[in-house]
Write a structure and sequence with these properties.
Layout lengths: L1 E5 L9 H10 L4 E5 L11 E5 L5 H10 L3 E6 L18 E5 L31 E5 L3 H6 L5 H12 L4 E3 L4 E2 L2 E2 L8 H5 L2 E6 L4 H7 L4 E3 L25 H8 L2 E2 L1 H6 L1 H8 L4
Parallel strand pairs: 1-2, 1-3, 3-4, 6-7, 6-10, 10-11
Antiparallel strand pairs: 4-5, 5-12, 8-9
């Protein structure tokens, strides 16, 4: 049995672009519960969530303590939605198992990544400033790093005197992400020596721009990025192409959820 925790009072939520398809094609029976509940349905084998809204953080931590599997859906690594141009096949949602981000599956082909025309630049050996990109307060609360930004700035200054630029997650018009940014991320990366982030998707664009990344150990980029700020002046940079392929295979359009492609691919790559 899979229990999907959803906002029962919001039929217009974008979560239904994922959940309706999951209900049709999941490998087990599916039922729904309200994500405002204070407790999880502990008779179920697996659970699924949409973002860290309502009481999801508390519910996920309860499920982790009980040792049960859970799934998480949220914004993608490429192909984010644009409210001004929304169709069932032009935007994506990521789906993750037992984490809020996907894991790295080496050796996948680039067929899905090719759809996004992702360009990967060689590592830059130049750059002056350090771009610090904190995740949302909800993410920091989830990983128990509520004071991440202050602690990180303090630690950076212990190991380098490079200038620091802080880029908060863009928000506006009831949403967040690149469409709400006053300054595009690629502009702030143009002369960056490094990007430091907790779990932000900014790590993807940074690596594609050839800018080394230091991330939190809970980040989806941890497997190919630096995690030790004491080594900020001697950072490693790993070619991200294989890792990017892995990301592309774990995000899907509403149409792919609805027609069963998403579930089929998750089985194929042995996530499901």
């Amino acid at each position: 049995m899979l229990t999907i925790y959803a906002p029962s009072n919001n039929p217009k939520s974008k979560c239904w672009e994922v959940f309706n398809g999951v209900q049709k094609h999941w490998i087990e029976d599916v039922k729904f519960a309200d994500n405002a509940l204070d407790y999880f349905c502990n008779d179920d084998t697996e659970s699924m969530f949409w973002g860290l809204v309502n009481n999801n953080t508390n519910l996920i931590h309860q499920i982790e303590e009980a040792g049960q599997n859970w799934w998480f859906t949220d914004t993608p690594y490429f192909g984010r939605f644009d409210n001004n141009n929304l169709t069932p096949n032009n935007h994506y949602w990521r789906i993750c198992k037992n984490n809020i981000h996907v894991g790295y599956i080496p050796g996948l082909d680039n067929k899905r990544l090719e759809k996004f025309n992702v360009q990967v630049k060689d590592k830059t050996n130049q750059g002056d400033h350090i771009l610090v990109c904190p995740s949302s307060p909800g993410i920091h609360n989830f990983i128990n790093e509520q004071d991440w930004l202050n602690k990180t700035i303090k630690e950076i200054k212990q190991h380098t005197d490079r200038p620091i630029i802080i880029r908060h997650k863009p928000r506006g018009r009831g949403t967040s992400g690149p469409s709400e940014a006053l300054i595009p991320l690629d502009k702030q990366l143009e002369n960056a020596y490094a990007c430091v982030t907790s779990c932000s998707i900014s790590a993807v664009e940074s690596l594609c721009q050839g800018v080394p990344v230091v991330c939190h150990q809970s980040s989806f980029a941890e497997s190919i990025c630096n995690t030790d700020l004491s080594k900020i002046e001697s950072l490693n940079y790993v070619d991200p192409r294989d890792w990017l392929n892995s990301l592309a295979y774990q995000q899907f359009t509403p149409e792919e959820f609805n027609n069963g492609t998403a579930i089929s691919i998750l089985k194929e790559i042995k996530v499901l």
